[in-house]
Amino acid sequence: MLNVLGRRPWLPAVHAAAAAASIGVIMLGPPDLALQVLGAYAIAGGVLAITAAILSEDRSEARWWPATAGLIGVGAGILALLWQPVILVLIIFIAIWSVAAGIFQISGGNRWRSSLQSGGLIRFSGVVSLTLGAVSLYLLLKLTV
Questions:
Q1: Rounded to an integer, what distance in angstroms lies between the CA atom of residue 72 and that of residue 55?
Q2: Alpha carbon distances (Å) from 8 to 23, 36, 93
């Protein structure tokens, strides 16, 4: 997957932009809007994961993991937008997903630094993902307290 992200810098750039916009709305906007934005972010992240899997030249089973995760993200986002009680589960899901994605993007960007054209952008996208995970937990605490 890092090959796809490294050769198509618009993928991590769009991911970072979507995560940064979500962070801004969560921190500055009303909670109702923040919840809708998280649903939209889950859909956008899922679509980007599916896109990366489709663009991958790797035809092994490994390429289906991001596609499956993308389908789960799209489904969770749609479910959260249509059925509000599931939103707390979505917040936890996004927090875990964002932290894991951030760690993998940063470590992968560092490890494959010499062979990736946009390694810095991948690492930046990872930092933004980690931040979104922390902000999602902040929103969860804000909603439950």
A1: 19
A2: 24, 28, 27
